[in-house]
Amino acid sequence: MSDYLTRTNHLLARIDALATISEDATGATVTRRFGTPAFVRGRALVQGWFEAAGLTTRLDGIGNLRGRLASRRPGAKTFVLASHIDTVVNAGKYDGPLGVLMGLNLVESIIQQGIELPFDLELMAFSDEEGVRFHTTYLGSKVVTGAFEPTLLQKTDADGITLAQALAGMGGDAAALATDALPAAEWLGYFELHIEQGPVLWESGVPVALVTAIAGQQRVELTWQGMAGHAGTVPMPMRQDALAAAAEFVLAAEAFALAHGRGLVATVGQLRIPYSASNVIPGQAIHSLDLRSPDAGQLAAAYADLRTQAEAIAARRGLGLDWQLVQYTAPVACDPELNRLLGRAIAASGYEVEGLVSGAGHDAVPASAVAPATMAFIRCYKGISHNPLENVEAADVAAALAVAERFLLELKDKYA
Ligand code: GLV
Ligand code: MN
Ligand code: MN
Which of 84, 85, 89, 130 to mutate to test the pocket of ligand 1 (most atoms within 8 A of CB)? Predict the structure, then answer.
C-alpha cells in the first residue's frame, strides 16, 4: 500500500469519528450546524488532533479553529490552508471535513519531515460555510478576511436566537471579531481541498482537478401573504392561497433556469407554512430561493426577471409579496498563478489537468478578496453531495494528497 494510501486511511478514520458527532442524538444522520452543542463537540475533537500534530491552536470570536505552524523566517507572511466543519442538515461526511483533515495530514507530514517553510502556515476549520442556521454563508471566513459586517450579529435562527446570542452561548466573542481578521498585508495565499459535489470528475474518471472559478449566488426569502380560510367552505375562485402562489413561483423558477442553459441554477430548498393544517387554506407561505451563476450579468438578469415574475403572480392572485435579498456573493475567478503551480503538481503526479467551475459556494470566495486563492476538487461518488450518500474513493483522496503535497512544495520553492 502506498504511503499516501496509508495516510488516507488514517484521515478517513478521523472523518468517520467526526461524523459520529451530530445534533441527531440517535446518530442516524450527520448534522452539525454552526454553533450547536454538536458543532462545539466536533470542533473539540478536531482541535485535539491539531494539537497532537504540534500546531499552536486557538478558537477565534466566530468559533473558527485555527492552528499555526510558524516559519523561522522573520516577518513571514501567512498561507492559509482551510475548509469548514459545519454541515447542512442530514449531511454527508466529507463536505468540509475532508479539506480540514487532508490539510491536517499535510501539516503532519511537513512537521514529521522537518520541512522548513518560508511562510507561516495557518490551518483553519471554519465554523460556518453552509449558512444553514442564519441563512447567510461564510460567517467564519468573512471574519478571517475582514469582510464580516457587524449587522450580521442581529440575524436570527429559526428559534429567534440572534447570531450575537449564539456566539455568547458557544464561548465565542462578538467584540473580538474585528481583531480576528488576518490583516490583508499578512496574507500570502489560500488553498482549499474539497469534494467536487458534482458529477464531472465521476464521469471523466479524473481523481483530482483544479478550480478556475466559483459561481456567484443570491439567496432570497419570499413571503407570500394570502388569506387563511376554511378548506371546506371558501369557493375556489374566491381564495387567496399563499401556498398555491408559492408553488406557481417554484415551477416558474425551475422553468426559467432550465431555459437558460448550464450556467444558471435556481433552487427552492426550504418552505414553511405557518399554522398549517390539512383543513386550512394556507394564509402565508415563506420560502427560500437560491440562484447561482458563474456569470455576474446572467445572475443579475435572472434575479430581476424572477422578481418580476413573482410580483406578477402575486398581483394576479391578489396576494401580498415580500421579497428580501438575504445574501449576494459575486462570482470569483481563482488565482491564475496558484493554478499554474497546482496544474504542474497535478501533471507531475501523473494526472490529466482539468479545470472546473464550482457551482457550490466555498470559503475561497471571501479569501479571494484579500489573497490569491484556489482550490482542488476531489472526485466524489456519482457527484452526490448534501446527502448522506456522499462518498469518496480512498485512492482518489490519496491522489489528491500527493498532488497537494507537491503543490505545497512548489509554494515553498516559489517563496524561498
Ligand atoms: C454550500 O455548500 C453551498 O454551496 O451552498
Ligand atoms: Mn463545503
Ligand atoms: Mn456544503
Answer: 130
Domain boundary among 329, 344, 365: 329
Question: Which 8-state DSSP code applies to residue 180?
Answer: G
Q: pLDDT by residue (tens digit) across 77-116? A: 999 999 999 999 999 999 999 999 999 999 999 999 999 9
Residues 18 and 133 in one domain: yes
**Three-state DSSP class for 74?**
coil
Phi and psi, residue 124, nearest 5°? -125, 135
Atom of ligand 1 nearest to the CA of 197: 2
For residue 319, which of 220, 235, 224, 223 has the smallest C-alpha distance? 224
**Domain membership of residue 183 as a residue range:** 2-215+332-415
**What pTM did the predictor assign?**
0.92
- The total number of structural domains in the chain stands at 2
In 74-215 the beta strands, taken as DSSP E runs, fall at 78-84, 120-126, 187-195, 208-214
Q: 216 C-alpha to center of ligand 2: Å?
A: 15
User: Would the CB of 360 count as within 6 Å of ligand 1?
Assistant: yes
| Domain shared by 26 and 130, yes or no | yes
Q: What is the pLDDT of residues 243-279, one digit of tens each?
A: 999 999 999 999 999 999 778 999 999 999 999 999 9
Answer yes or no: is the C-beta of 96 below 6 A from any ligand 1 atom. no
Return the CATH number at 75. 3.40.630.10
